[in-house]
Design goal:
Isopropylmalate Dehydrogenase; globular; binds 1,4-dihydronicotinamide adenine dinucleotide; 338 residues; alpha/beta; ten-stranded mixed β-sheet
Length: 338
């Protein structure tokens, strides 16, 4: 049966990288029925709502989503639609694999996976200002929430991911020395749950700031890293930097009842409409989706075509110091699939 997938092209470079990705999937012979929906600024402009009911209904029905980047206004304006989707569908596990594709860069042989808790911590958005002496914004306050259940399921997810994917080491990154409650609970639960995985996978832990430094000094020492929401957000950009930038790293957001696949980067307003966006991260997100749907064969073929295009053909977009447009790069990947 042909799977039906909700497709949200998104904002900024979203429509450009979506078109490129659909062309590559078509050329590979992937069979998917796309249910196109609106989200983000595009949805606000067309439907008056950054997350319309029709989009939510489509995700509820199809349970698999390929989503372009969505713009979130800084400070004022609507809250993040990405966060809203994660919350609505309880997409608690964020998987971000970072692998060196192009040799000869700053770091060779990086192959690590960051697993980030996606629904708790400071990013729940319980924020307020406290007024003092006539200044309504004299103090800003935020509340972080960590639950035992939330910790248990993300730690278990990371350990199961490691076992299923032949990974040897899971590193728990935390700040339990300072944040003794919200980060201390995460570390305690990690130690408890990992007892059940003795002999199957090695587990160690590291304080988040040391983790950030060790990633820069020697990223090859890491295999799978599991961490809480905000630390994971920050580390994921760092690991993208290790392997050549945001244009190369995909992300998956997995819950019990839905899964959403995307690029790690945002809507890149500075290059939107210029035809130079690198579609690789979004393409690799689509490959993670194909794996999830059981079409590992096409996922591997597309990954190989991307690597050949970047390495053998040296066809690269400007973010990778090349001069190819999005279209030229996409044409080259399609030639490699033929
Ligand atoms: P960004 O990731 O959009 O851009 C950062 C820098 O990387 C820019 O210079 C951009 O041109 C470059 N870049 C990103 N993707 C690229 C690609 N595929 N090819 C070539 N260059 C690329 O981050 P920024 O500027 O902080 O955020 C822009 C908007 O995106 C914001 O509204 C933010 O909230 C949103 N955002 C959405 C995400 C999502 O939908 N998952 C994730 C991150 C940010």
């Amino acid at each position: 049966m042909t799977p039906v997938v909700t497709l949200i092209p998104g904002d900024g470079i979203g429509p450009e990288i979506t078109e490129a990705t659909l062309r590559v999937l078509d050329a590979a012979g992937v069979c998917i029925e796309w249910d196109r929906q609106l989200g983000g600024m595009a949805a606000l402009e067309e439907a008056g709502d950054p997350l319309p009911d029709a989009t939510l209904e489509s995700v509820r029905k199809n349970r698999v989503v390929l989503k372009g980047p969505l713009t979130t206004p800084v400070g004022e304006g609507f809250r993040s639609v990405n966060v809203a989707l994660r919350r609505e569908f309880d997409l608690y596990a964020n998987i971000r694999p970072a692998r060196t594709i192009i040799p000869g860069g700053r770091y060779e042989d990086v192959d690590l996976v960051l697993i980030r808790e996606n629904t708790e911590g400071l990013y729940i958005g319980y924020e307020t200002f406290i007024a003092i002496e006539g200044d309504p914004r004299a103090v800003a306050q935020a509340t972080a929430i960590t639950t035992r259940k939330g910790c248990e399921r993300i730690i278990r997810f990371a350990l199961e991911y490691a076992v299923t994917n032949g990974r040897k080491l899971v590193t728990v990154a935390h700040k339990a020395n300072i944040l003794k409650a919200v980060s201390g609970l995460f570390l305690d639960v990690a130690r408890e749950v990992s007892e059940g995985y003795r002999g199957k996978v090695e587990v160690n832990d590291v304080i988040i700031d040391a983790c950030a430094m060790r990633l820069v000094l020697d990223p090859q020492q890491f295999d799978v890293i599991v961490t809480t929401n905000m630390f994971g957000d920050i580390l994921s950009d760092e690991i993208a930097g290790l392997v050549g930038g945001l244009g190369l790293v995909p992300g998956a957001n997995i819950g019990k009842n839905a899964a959403l696949f995307e690029a790690m980067h945002g809507s890149a307003p500075d290059i939107a409409g210029k035809g130079v966006a690198n579609p690789t991260a979004f393409l690799l997100g689509a490959c993670m989706m194909l794996d999830y749907l059981g079409d590992e064969e096409n996922a591997s073929r597309i990954r190989a075509a991307i690597a050949d295009t970047l390495i053998q053909d040296s066809v690269r977009t400007p973010d990778l110091h090349g001069d190819a447009t999005t279209t030229k790069f996409t044409d080259a990947v399609i030639r490699r699939l033929a």
